[in-house]
Each structure stands twice: as C-alpha cells, then as structure tokens.
Please model this.
Amino acid sequence: MLIATFIIILGFVGLIWGADKFVEGASGLAQNLGVSPLIVGLTVVAFGTSAPEIFSSAVAALENKPELAIGNSFGSNLFNIGVVLGVCALIKPLRVPATILQRELPSLLIITLATGLMLMDLNLGLLDAILLLVIAAIFTYLLVRSHLNLDTGSPRATEQLSEYEVSTISFLRAVGYLTTGLFILVVSAEALVQAASNIAKLLGVSTGIIGLTIVALGTSLPELAASVASVIKDRDELAVGNIVGSNIFNLLTVLPFPGFFAPGPFAKNLFYRDFSVVTLLTIILCVFCYLSLSKRGTIGRTSGIIFLSIYLSWFTVMLMDARG
Model:
C-alpha cells in the first residue's frame, strides 16, 4: 500500500509536469508554424489543464479498466465545481463575465445534459464516443470562431485576447518540450493507473471508486492551483472560465476513451449516484451565475459553502456505499 501510494504521488507530479511541458512545446511548435497565439490559446493551452485526466483515462481504457476512466471524468467535474469553485468563492466573491454567461456556461449545461441522455442506458459504447468527439469538434470550432469575430481594436477584446497569450520558443526547444512532455505523460499515466488498481484491490473497492476519489483529486490539482492563483490575482474571469472549460473538456475528451477502447456497460452507481450529482452541481452553478447578475455580478461565499456542502455530502455517501 505504501509503495502504491508513493507511485501515485509520483504519477500526479509527472502528469502535471508533463502536461506543462507538453503544452509549452505544442504552443511553441504551433507558433513557429505560423498559428496565431489566439488559436493556440483556445485549443492547445485550454487542453492543458485536462491533459492529466485525458492521459490517465486513455491508459485506463487501454488496460480494460473503463470504470476508472469514467470515474475520473465524473470525479474531476465534481471536484472542480464542489471544491475548486467552492474554495475560490470562499476566498472572495467571484465576478462572472458576461461572455461566460452567454457562451461557455450554456454549453456546459447542454453538454452535461446530452451526456446524461447518452449514458442513461448504463452503457458507454463506440457510438457514444464518436458523438462526444463530434460535439467536442463543434464546440471548439464555435469557440474559436466567436473569438475570431471579436473587434480586436476594442479594449474589451484586447483584454480577452490577453488571456490567451503564450510565450514564443525556438523550434528545436518546442519539439524537445513536446516529446519530453508526451513521454512523461504516458509513463506517469501508466504508473498511476497500475498503482490505483492495486490500491483498489487491496481495499476491496471498485476501480470506479478510486477514479472518483484519488485519481480525480490528483488530476484536478492543475485546475485548483490555476483557479486559486487567478482569484488571488483578482482575475476571477480566468478562475470561472478555467473550471467551466475544464468540465466541458472532461466530458467531451475523457469519456470517449473508454467508449473506443473498452466499450460496454458500467456500474449503475456511476450514473445514478455520481453523474446525477455532476448534473445537480452544474445546474446549481448555472443558477447561481445568472442570479449573480442581480447581486453585483458575483458568486458569493454562501454559494461557495453550498458547493462544498454538496460535494462533501456526495463524498460521504460514496464512501458509505463503498464500505457497504
């Protein structure tokens, strides 16, 4: 158990460090090939905080552990809203930008509900995976197009574009970062999945439970760190946008892996207990965000307490079910 725990910690460190280098290398390579910083930011950089979930879930699916991958996706979304957003709101009331209310937030709600409809049969298959990737492509296209349509001369547009600035590095260094980051991501994901599976066997619980808890918490650390840092720097729009965007990518780019590589039925608790709470938290987040318009445009500390309370209640019930 001690060795497996140590490997899991090293796996988390490797995933986070590898994702950082992978994104830096991919961003530098794209810019060297003439891709605009805006497009790089909206695609490669936005992908970065979900890279740990994506790679760990891909390895889990390839090793025929689909419930670990599904649990990772659901658990990460639960953690992002319940803990990350809850903690950020407790630090200070969060301002919600109009652009997120108009675009990303409705997209998150629609994608969450659509995913629920796909999974109601308690089966994640090839068709579901294809549909999720098609929705991901459409969402990314619409997001990029909406930002390209900005009036780049306006102060508001300039501020939005500055969110996606990425540093320029040489071509060779970009290739080095990209390959090194990719190698570290794959090795770390493999180590994490193996260690997590061993702990599940030792504790006598399903890999889905481990995915919902240990793996989801560890792979969501980039979102926690990035969001808290943004709030401290008074960049609330980055914190809220990071959480909403990450949850969208978790559903659209993580769930397809078990659908492609290990299709089939999954435990009903993953849907009725866990995804139901994902949907509940998403709906409450949307309600609080739109109510914030009449409260000086902020999500207050009371909302943060509610998010944390729902997460802790779900976590307690989940642990009770695991022991029972």
